[in-house]
Specification:
single chain; mainly alpha; 6 helices; 0% strand
């Protein structure tokens, strides 16, 4: 009886290897990085132009990339649950640095001020 219990427990643990199932329309990691970079740029634009509506710019970015809000949310949840979000955010930061090399000084300054800031809060 103990052997059967052990075998059942082994199959149960092997079957539950992922925390969350991937969504039907999972956004690729590279495309997700591009989206996160665009969202960060849009967020910074609101600092320079307070009348900017971030929600509209987010909708425009998603529409431009042919992605629905539901697809983005489900992909974001999946990547957060699997632990891939930090890699995606680091890639997004690299995309921003490619677009604006002067941003590197600003990022380095902020990282020195806040040494223990996780990737999602940068």
């Amino acid at each position: 009886m103990k052997n059967w219990f052990f075998i059942f427990l082994t199959f149960l643990l092997a079957g539950c290897s992922e925390l969350i199932d991937p969504p039907k329309k999972l956004i690729e990691k590279d495309k997700m990085s591009e989206l996160m970079a665009e969202f960060a740029i849009n967020d910074q634009m609101s600092n320079f132009f307070p009348q900017t509506n971030i929600e509209n710019s987010t909708r425009f970015t998603l529409k431009q990339k042919n992605i629905t809000a539901t697809e983005f949310i489900e992909s974001y949840k999946f990547y957060t649950a699997t632990g891939d979000m930090e890699k995606i955010l680091n890639n997004a930061q690299e995309i921003i640095l490619e677009k604006d090399p002067a941003a590197k000084d600003y990022i380095d300054k902020k990282l020195k001020e806040n040494k223990d800031v996780p990737a999602f809060a940068r």
